[in-house]
Each structure stands twice: as C-alpha cells, then as structure tokens.
Predict the 3D structure of the following.
Amino acid sequence: MGKRILILGAGVGGIVSSNIFAKSIMKEHEVVLIDKNDTHIFRASYPYIMINVRKPHQIRAEISSLQKMGVKFVQAEVLGLDLSNLLVETDIGSFTYDYLIIALGAEEHSEKVPGLIETAFNLCDYESVLDLSQVLERFEQGHIITFISELPVIGTVAPYEIVFLLDSFFRRRKQRQNIELTLITPEEIPLQNSNPKVSNSIAADLKKRGINLLVNSQVVSLDPRANSIELQDGSIIVADIFIAIPPQQGPAVLKNSSLELDEGWVKVDPHTLKTNLENVYAVGDITAIRMPSNRDWAPKLGVFAHYQAEVVARNIALELAGKKPMFRYRGKAAGFVMATDISLGRIGSFDYFAIERPKVTLLRPTRLGHWVKMAFEKYWLTRWF
C-alpha cells in the first residue's frame, strides 16, 4: 500500500525534497507539497532586486510546475499540527500523512522592535524590497543604515551583501561621496559564526569602502518622526533610509504541537534531521541546530536547507524501498558566494560541525564569484522547477 509524504513549505528545502522524491520513489506513493503562495521567489537575489540589477520576473518560478514531475501541489496556509493523529490543519481542510517534512522556514516579527514597521524597509519582504528599489533610484544624498535586529539572522551573509552592493551601486552612479553607509549588528564580530580570519577580512573590506560598522549593538527602537534609531546603550542615530533584517523565529503553528523546540525552532538530530516524533522531519531555517564548538546557532542559509532536504528525502526513499537509510548531514557546504560588488563575489565554504571551531573560507572577491552566483540563480530556477 502506498504512503503519503507531506511536505510543508515550498522554499529551498521543500523544493529539493519534492524533486528527489519525484525521481526516486515508486509511483504508488504520493508526494504532496503545501505552501500558502503559488510562486517561489529566489530570496538570495533580494539584494540585487534592491539595486535594480535583477528584475522580479527573473527570480520567480511557478510552484505548480512541479506537478509535471508527479508532485501534487496544494496552495493552502498551514494553521496547525495535530501530530498525535498524523494530521496537518490548513485553511482548506486537513491532510493526513505517513511521513512529514516541515520546511516552513522562519516567521518574521517586526513588531518586536518598536517603530520598525513604520520606519524601515524589510529586506526579508518581497514587496518592501521592491519599494526600496524605487526609493534608491531617486536617492542622491544622505545616510542609509542597515541593521540586524537579533540573532540568529536568516540568510547569514545577506546584511553584508546589502551594504557592499549599496556601496557599489552609488559608486557607479558617482554619488558615493554624498552617501553615508552604516551596518549595525548584535554580532561580536562580522559573520560571527565564522572565524577571526574571515571576520577580520570582512571588517577590513568594510573599512576600505568607507562603510561604518557597529558590532555588539542592539537596536531597541526606531522613531519615524525623528527618522532615528535608538541602540541599547542609549545612543541615537539619525538617518534617511533604514533597511532592516527583522527579528525572526520558528512559525507560531509549532508552539502548540508535540514537537520538541529550542527557542521556537524545531529540535532535530543534526545528522538525520529527525524530530522527536516518528517519521517527522524538519529542514532549513526552521531547525534548531547549534555548532558543537561554541553552541551558537548554525548558519541559516539556503545551501544548508538544500543539503538537509537531500539527506531526508533520500533516506525516506531508501526506507520506502525496504532498504536501510544511509545518508547523513555533515554541516558542510562549498561554493556559496557572498556578493561584494555588482560584479564581484567571494566564493566560500562552511564546515560548522568542526569540533574546535567552525571552518569557514572566503576567497578574495573575483568576477568568477559573481558569475557563479548568477549561474546558480539560473540553475535553481530552471533545474528544480
């Protein structure tokens, strides 16, 4: 008798696992993907949308296209998890499952920082990014502040890409001398879940570009009338544009479930992504994985969601075929790119399960890095849909 595999969320983890199931399990089994949206947007390209280097149609794909592979797509919003009865409640009804993969990502809570909603552009919100791109086209002089509201930050390298791309954007328009750029982060050092060598290189690059960096700085509120930001130490900074990475946490639907949580994120076995419940897995930003070296949160990047989804999907496929699951998630990723200019990028690698300290590399900025980043965007939106 066939089994139903239910996948919640059509982000990176949901898309990858859907593809693998479509190619690796018998047709008697049913794969159902649920997401509240009908369109997948490649969020890693938001910083490029911000400066009008990419256009909206270039970073979108229709989720329903997965149906040609045999994946059933249901557009619905997940409202609750009745995991003791193997049920997922949505706004269009309930769905049963034999295997459940939770890939719902993070949930934004801009309201946790007073004044953020009224004052700042939200770099995690598609419509807000589009609005910001229009404002930047007309902006010629003033102060732009980008800030990380709290940790863990989703899209670990994104805040740094934002300020580097803004610097490049205004230099190309020969307006940089009229623009002040500031990055505010609660991290102790840039890219905190990295290592001192990488962090120092990022700090040096920011200084070279004339970008202000405030570390160990917690934003407590914004004042839309005064166009200012207040930090935990009581200092006030006035600016013309605020760009926020808002507070994020695990989705509210998890809170009343029987899943074991860690500060709102789903606890999983770090190598198999199994939760505390049988045949229930979690992948991507939603997972509570900490690095063994310092117990900090492991980086939350799409590349890690990709590898986690592969491990889960391939192990379930083996189990359905009557074989022993053999794949393990290693906490490694190579080939990700941090943009440092409109035409440059730093190719990097992560190994965050290293015992003594996370192993992170970031090569010097090159044009090759940029083209690797652009090639992956195209590959993702064509190969996986």
